[in-house]
Design goal:
- With 299 residues, the protein is α/β, with parallel strands linked by helices.
- Helices cover 36% and strands 26% of the residues.
- The chain contains ten helices and 13 strands.
- It has a nine-stranded mixed β-sheet with strand order 5-4-1-8-9-10-11-12-13, with helices on both faces. Strands 3-2-6-7 form a four-stranded mixed β-sheet.
- Helix 3 runs parallel beside helix 4.
- The radius of gyration is 18 Å and the shape is globular.
Length: 299
């Protein structure tokens, strides 16, 4: 079983020919809303990959709440650990440029009211061998409690270091598996501007210190990871991206699902990388997450 403890948002998405520079206004050419939130995205990805998934988090008592949960509900995700609190559901304001790159501002809303007690509740029904997935769009003290409770119960924890927060290097060491993009990994390693040899050296050093499995996503260059002392690589697909929103979350959810299914590490990386590539071919976070059969077909 996979439990995702994290954020649930509504995404408000505007598309432009190019992203604006600071202080600049550019004309938009499209607008859409879509369910999002890193936690919800990852939960939906794991569910679409075919695994049984609990979503733990919070939504508000507003008009966005039902829509934010709709795709999770339709997919058969267990929502019994989602609480409804006074105030707004979390929102993400997203600008997508013509090249598929994006800028995002996240307003926590109900996500900011997730507590350490909620973490205890989420972990309460889990047993040794289950998988817990977390991110940093809910308060850090709740993430820390969840990681500690998971370790005490023998639950495998997967922490995605996004969005980057000051406590990320410290909390990262509490997880069994850490997933980061290039920028997040540089913060974890305390070193900026890494080239490939420097990244491999940092992976080796951190792995020797902590024994953790460390995974770094590299966009179009695939993924590099270290586990049990060995460095692994995997490639996604060669694509022309439409929208990269949700690609990292798709990778995380599919990776967790692959481990839960019993795939070996190399196969889990490859499957997740392909799924992340496919997520770039459609707009929006959750609407772009591919279904398991489509990922298998492309592999």
């Amino acid at each position: 079983m996979i439990t995702v403890f994290g954020s649930i948002n509504m995404d408000l998405i505007a598309t432009t020919e190019r992203l604006p520079k600071p202080g600049e206004t550019v004309a938009g050419n499209g607008f859409a809303t879509a369910a999002g939130g890193k936690g919800a995205n990852q939960a939906l990805a794991a569910r679409r990959a075919g695994r049984y998934v609990h979503m733990a988090g919070a939504v508000g008592k507003d008009s966005f709440a039902a829509d934010a949960l709709a795709l999770l509900d339709d997919a058969g995700t267990d929502l019994s650990l989602v609480k409804h609190v006074d105030g707004p559901t979390g929102t993400a304001l997203i600008l997508v440029g013509g090249d598929g790159e994006n800028m995002i501002a996240v307003v926590p809303g109900a996500n900011g009211l997730v507590t350490p007690n909620d973490a205890e509740t989420a972990i309460g029904g889990m047993t040794e061998g289950d998988i817990l997935m977390l991110q940093f769009e809910v308060p850090a003290d709740a993430v820390e409690r969840a990681l500690s409770a998971a370790r005490a119960k023998g639950v495998t924890s997967i922490l995605n270091l996004a969005p980057l927060i000051p406590d990320a290097p410290r909390l990262g060491r509490l997880a069994d598996i850490v997933i980061a993009n290039e920028t997040e990994f540089e913060r974890l390693a305390g070193q900026d501007g890494m080239d490939t040899p420097a990244r491999e050296a940092a992976l080796t050093r951190l792995h020797a210190e902590t024994g953790q499995t460390l995974i770094v996503t590299l966009g179009g260059d695939g993924v590099i990871a270290i586990r049990d002392g060995a460095i692994s690589r995997a490639q996604g697909l060669k694509i022309e991206p439409v929208d990269t929103v949700g690609a990292g979350d798709t990778f995380c959810g599919y990776f967790a699902a692959s481990l839960d299914e019993g795939l070996d590490f190399a196969s889990a990386l490859r499957r997740a990388a392909v799924a992340g590539s496919l997520a770039c071919l459609k707009s929006g976070a959750q609407p772009s997450i591919p279904r398991g059969e489509d990922v298998v077909a492309r592999i």
